[in-house]
Design brief:
Blueprint: H1 17-20, E1 33-37, H2 45-54, E2 58-59, E3 69-72, H3 87-97, E4 103-106, H4 107-113, H5 117-124, E5 126-127, H6 129-136, H7 140-148, E6 154-158, E7 161-165, H8 166-180, H9 185-195, H10 202-217, E8 218-222, E9 225-227, E10 234-237, H11 238-241, H12 255-264, E11 276-279, H13 280-285, H14 297-309, H15 313-327, H16 330-342, H17 352-365, H18 369-382, H19 387-399, H20 403-416, H21 421-433, H22 437-450, H23 455-476
Parallel strand pairs: 1-2, 1-3, 3-4
Antiparallel strand pairs: 5-7, 6-7, 8-9, 8-11, 9-10
Helix pairs in contact: 4-5, 8-10, 9-10, 14-15, 14-17, 15-17, 17-18, 18-19, 19-20, 19-21, 20-21, 21-22, 22-23
């Protein structure tokens, strides 16, 4: 798992670049004095410094008037632990304002400059939720929640498996961690605005910051009622919402203050355009006014996801069951057809395959493996191309040493998309476990074509080295 730092870098077990890569023929950094800030996505700072020296430049650790190039790492933004922009970047900006000639370049542009095209492509490569969990330590269910609220957006979807931009997820992780540690949104917004003067891409991070704050702290209220940001899910109608307190305290033990503020707040009208925020806790206290029997399938699905994220797995499973019950209801289908016929917006219906997949995950995490296997099968029945469901089936059957069933599931996943790294990884592991070493080597090679960084890539390289050594010894004999 990679760990985040600001002026340092995340440690990894990759071989030293300086010892394994050829020099750029033209020494592109000749005469350059280079400093680094932020966390590098492609290597640790020590290796980057070695590459500067090998390419004709001089690497320094601190900013001064002699620095001619500042390289900004692309694993999250260069932000200090208090949320401020990194000291090196701030110092560089001040020096430039005073007339110093300093180039501020992104890590990927620096890699292109010294002809490390493969490493540059790694930064721009897209990753599955499972790969991001390994590389960044962001749990898969968090990745999915971030995608649901549109904090991160898949760059592609193959076999229903989303692939995300590494840098976008790293940025979201960095902002989320700083917010969790008490840095104010106002401080982060100020820092990102400052970064926008020298770095491209901060507009997207400002949008991420806004979504994170909404997801963590508030519901939105407009002229039509209360809704969850991102999903747009309505919780209360406007008449009920108008009775809610407008204060933003998360302490439900403040009814007197809330009542006083309600008395002092004028009634809103549908013409009011300005959004008002209220705390999640305060809004949830009012949800009792609306019977759960009125919840839609989509609301039950989102509730199941929320409960699962909070490790309330049994309750999550019940929520998913309620969702599936509504999906199967003839009444729900009739309402959908009638609403569609009238040309008005209809109720939202989640995909049954997704509901079963999330229920399977909750069951597995609750220790109910057999029930989880059955629900993963249900997911594939609704969506035969569901790669992640087939891969999970392979993993669970492998854990139970049902080798044939595990292989069938993983081969099915690979047949849907032969470039899915998760399926290739787990199939290579399975082949190793059953001592089919020659077959395993083939799949470790395939895996490395799609994932060349992180601990499993290192493991794959080690397995290939072992196989080469065994083959060499066999020839010697």
């Amino acid at each position: 798992m990679r760990t985040m730092s600001v002026e340092g870098s995340s440690e990894c077990s990759q071989p030293s670049l300086a010892s394994s890569l050829p020099l750029a023929s033209s020494l592109p950094l000749a005469g350059e004095c280079v400093a680094f800030t932020g966390t590098l996505a492609s290597m640790i700072h020590r290796e980057a410094a070695e590459l500067v020296e090998l390419n004709g430049g001089r690497a320094v650790q601190s900013m001064s008037g002699s620095v001619s190039m500042l390289v900004v790492g692309e694993e999250g933004w260069p932000l200090e632990e208090d949320g401020a922009a990194s000291q090196k970047l701030t110092h560089a900006t001040q020096l430039m304002a005073d007339g110093a000639e300093i180039r501020i370049v992104a890590e990927s542009d620096w890699l292109h400059l010294i002809n490390l095209i493969e490493r540059r492509e790694e930064i721009h490569r897209s990753y599955t939720p499972a790969m991001l969990q390994t590389l960044l330590g962001v749990p898969g269910n968090v990745i999915r929640r971030w995608a649901r609220i549109q904090l991160i957006r898949p760059v592609s979807i193959v076999g229903r498996c989303p692939y995300f931009d590494y840098r976008e997820v790293a940025s979201a992780q960095r902002l989320a961690r700083l917010l969790d540690e008490g840095v104010t949104p106002e401080c982060l917004e100020k820092s990102l605005s400052e970064l926008s003067r020298t770095l491209a891409g901060t507009d997207r991070s400002l949008a991420q910051l806004n979504l994170l704050v909404q997801d963590k702290n508030v519901l939105m209220r407009d002229a039509h009622g209360v809704l969850i940001p991102g999903s747009g899910q309505r919780l209360l109608d406007f008449d009920t919402a108008a009775d809610l307190s407008l204060h933003c305290s998360d302490d439900p033990a403040e009814p007197a203050a809330a009542d006083q503020e309600r008395e002092e707040t004028p009634n809103l009208t549908p013409e009011d355009e300005q959004l008002t925020t209220i705390s999640f806790i305060e809004a949830r206290l009012q949800l009792d006014d609306r019977s759960m029997s009125e919840w839609t399938a989509d609301e039950w699905f989102n509730e199941g996801c929320r409960l699962s994220e909070e490790a309330a797995f049994d309750s999550a499973v019940n929520a998913f069951r309620n969702c599936l019950s509504l999906l199967a209801s003839e009444h729900a289908l009739l309402r959908e057809s009638q609403t569609s016929f009238s040309g008005q917006a209809g109720p939202v219906f989640p995909d049954p395959a997704d509901v079963n997949f999330h229920m399977a995950d909750a069951l597995y995490r609750a220790g109910k493996t057999e029930a989880a296997i059955e629900r993963y099968h249900c997911a594939t029945e609704f969506a035969p191309d569901f790669i992640e469901a087939w891969t999970q089936l392979g993993c669970l059957q492998t854990a139970r040493q049902n080798w044939q069933l595990a292989e069938e599931a993983l081969i099915t996943a690979i047949s849907i998309h032969e470039g899915n790294p998760d399926a290739l990884l787990h199939y290579a592991q399975l082949l190793d476990q059953v001592k089919r070493n020659d077959d395993a080597v083939v799949y470790w090679e395939k895996y490395l074509r799609h994932d060349s960084r992180g601990p499993w890539a290192d493991h794959a390289r080690g397995r290939l080295e072992e196989a080469a050594q065994v083959a060499s010894e066999a020839i010697d004999r």
